[in-house]
Specification:
alpha/beta; Rossmann fold; Arc Repressor Mutant, subunit A; five-stranded parallel sheet; 9 helices; 5 strands; about 50% helix; globular
């Protein structure tokens, strides 16, 4: 498994790298000190499994880097590790394409659990940073039209409670492709996990 750690502070890069090594003997850690270097690493290494990214960095803010990584590889999960605990920063990061947001105040066990969750195809946001969805933030009735036909088929399977492996078998695609579709569905619906995605989808379908 290969991780890319992006932070402009060397001590934090080293600390995160040491923590990630606990995830297995085969873990490979790449590092970058700013956004430009991070994108270069993504371009060179097409086998990166996950990116850990700080928001406040020189040579391109974290939000811009998230969008650029997603544009290059929509299947590459990005998890923000930030000193900010402002819910607005969380929502903005998720809207830009991050699949996880962990405050730097979190304990190591929480971070590792968050990474495992994201690697399993889910989205992670700490409960303390979540706020009830305002009506203005709710998906518009036509948001389902932004999903492709294939993504709608995957969404239907999610509503049936099927795991990725079963969805891949039924739709004759790889689990990696299913994971990419699920990620795209989460982003379009603004969902933090499968349960929320299914709830939002059913609400939207009832409005049709």
């Amino acid at each position: 498994m290969k991780f890319l750690v992006v932070d402009d502070h060397a001590i934090l890069r080293q600390g995160l790298s040491a923590l990630l090594q606990q995830m297995g003997e085969d873990v490979v850690i790449l590092t970058a000190a700013d956004g430009a270097e991070a994108l270069s690493q993504v371009d060179v290494h097409d086998d990166i499994d996950l990116v850990l990214l700080d928001l406040a960095m020189p040579r391109g803010g974290g939000g811009q880097v998230i969008e650029a990584i997603v544009a290059r590889r929509i299947d590459l999960p990005v998890v923000v590790v930030s000193a900010s605990e402002d819910p607005a920063d969380v929502r903005r990061s998720m809207a830009q394409g991050a699949l996880g947001y962990v405050p730097k105040s979190a304990d190591p066990e929480t971070l590792l659990a968050a990474l495992k969750l994201v690697l399993a195809g889910e989205i992670y946001v700490p409960t303390i940073l979540l706020k009830e969805r305002n009506e203005s933030e709710a998906p518009a009735p036509g948001v389902l039209s932004r999903l492709t036909q294939r993504q709608m088929e995957v969404l239907d399977a999610l509503c049936e409670g099927l795991p990725n492996k079963s969805i891949a078998f039924n739709l004759q695609m790889s689990e990696k492709t299913v994971k990419a579709h699920v990620t795209a569905i989460f982003r379009v619906l603004g969902a933090a996990n499968r349960t929320q995605a299914v709830t939002i989808a059913r609400q939207l379908m009832e409005q049709r």
